Predict the 3D structure of the following.
Amino acid sequence: MTKSVANTAEPVRHSDTARELNSYPKYWAECFGTAPYLPMSRQEMDTLGWDSCDIIIVTADAYVDHPSFGMAIISRLLEAQGFRVGIIAQPQWDTAEPFKVLGQPNLFFGVTGGNMDSLINRYTADLRLRSDDAYTPDGKAGMRPDRSVIVYSQRCREAYYDTPIVIGGIEASLRRIAQFDYWSDKVRRSVLVDANADILLFGNAERALCELADQLARGRPISELWDLRGSAQLLESTPAGWTEIDSTRIDWPANIDKLPNPYEIHHQATGDAGTDNTSTQQDVEAESDAGVPIRIIPLPLQRRTDINTTTSCIRLPSFNKVSNDPALYAHASRILHQESNPHNARALVQKHGNQDVWINPPPIPLTTDEMDWVFDLPYQRQPHPSYGTARIPAYDMIKTSVNIMRGCFGGCTFCSITEHEGRIIQSRSENSIVTEIEKIRDLVPGFTGTISDLGGPTANMYGLNCKAPEVQRTCKRLSCVYPGICRHLDTDHSPTTRLYRKARAVPGVKRVAIASGLRYDLALKDPEYIEELVTHHVGGYLKIAPEHSEAKTLSKMMKPGIETYDEFKRLFDKFSRKAGKEQYLIPYFIAAHPGCDETDMLNLSLWLKQHKFRLDQVQTFYPSPMALATAMYYSERNPLERVRYKSQKLSVCKDVRQRRLQKAFLRYHDEKNWPILREALQQMGRAELIGNGSKQLIPPAKQQSAAGKRRRRRRR
């Protein structure tokens, strides 16, 4: 069983500053030096002269020693601190024996589901099994369990019961609180509870990981690290001395007066007779934690009460409540996303049975120097030799690409990148990126001179951040670019343009492609960047994602209007002609997004036909954990607005046939979709769109037999 931790330890106050990542003292095992590849067997450990591992990383991906693979980053980072790190990659999970292959780690097991969520990796949006796994040798499917973090953690606990278990990566990160699980169609508990783990690290976890490893190496119990930024643990109750903001309800009385606080301490005056006996906030803070009870404040009073944000937390509705009340689930999701700015976020707490899941504020973003240091660690940039000639598709895709930044301030509701990597952009320096390009040229077998991508979550957010630090420290906007681009956002693309030019100038580089998603509303702020991109970095096609044509649906996605796409296309075509190139935009669209009904999809289909688009690949909305759109899908309410029980319900497409129909509208040109589209158009009263005219969507049906007509009537 996961141990509840005592709340008597001295808390570390949440600050918006952080210790430098590479400033930690080296562990004594530094004397063993750097491993060519981190060991995956006892034989490799013997070759390195190790009698044991200090830390063992268990991952659901094949081990590729490359900075695009999370397990490689965290492993090399820990090695740089002096620790001996072993890797168990894609172990068999039916027994604990494969988890003993490297022996018992001296400090902890680190468990990650890999670069992708294991369930998204294995199932399509229609819940069909995928036939391959890009992160497995030769793309073989079935090499990882569903909910890998839970399964692996349980096996680690069976192997060595008393060894601390640290879970992280995107799968754990997006399940740190109670979350709707699309695959079982219910709300599940925090992964901390089900995994029987000691601590969860969320987001880009370098800061928390370095601090955690250092403290454990010093002999400090993991239960005392409950206040570590970017982490979550199970606690018995809210720590003493903290202020708890009660956000477990959504319909409070309209006018609520400040209530007397029954938990406030009152002290007897020790001075003159005229001294006020009521304790002040300073009095409370002066008390030892053991002597100061918690304060509980109703949510509506939080802005009318003097609260120390470094020792305040927000209590979310419990797991039991959000699992039975969709409105409360939407409310909890809204609060979590509002508390995502690392400079002002407060701790969150959610009751799970008789324990609390305590979630600390997000980690402070890495500086450019820290990013450079992380990406300059001694990666081999290849899969582990034990895989022989086996092909790992994900590696083939990224081996000649460069990650130039992290984070995304777009806030698209259907995407979980922001919830994982944060809203503040963390960029590498030009020199660091150019150096990596040179390494690719020199080290990657078969390099042909093409860099396949300079990007990250979004290609053109490199170096862009808030121009006003004082505003950023207090901002709680969910997006810097919706409903419009914030006036405080730096939209100057000249650093990106300069980077592109330097990358092209590297000897041996013939072409630099840009394959990451492009935020075209931002690009419009700098036409010079668009011209540079179109002239030198588009190989005939550029993928962008307007996602939809209809304002009603786009507002639920937090995406700009389709007119923004039209303006970008105009400049794209203009600069393509100027460069003497015939180039095309490939737009991506989503079907069945919450808030999107059949009329919206019909209008999108007509827009596609008007613009002569015949899409080959289309996306159906996939409710990933923690995304705001997933909260919309489950609750049928809009968490972008204040949630009430009387809030207007959203149109949500959950029925299999409805989802198939919305997808069919995106591929109106495919004759396999014509029967379902004809039926839908007739039911919608839009039969005039059935015919062979230029303004009609699909052709009429062929003559049917009497028996066929009877079958069709029965289906209706």
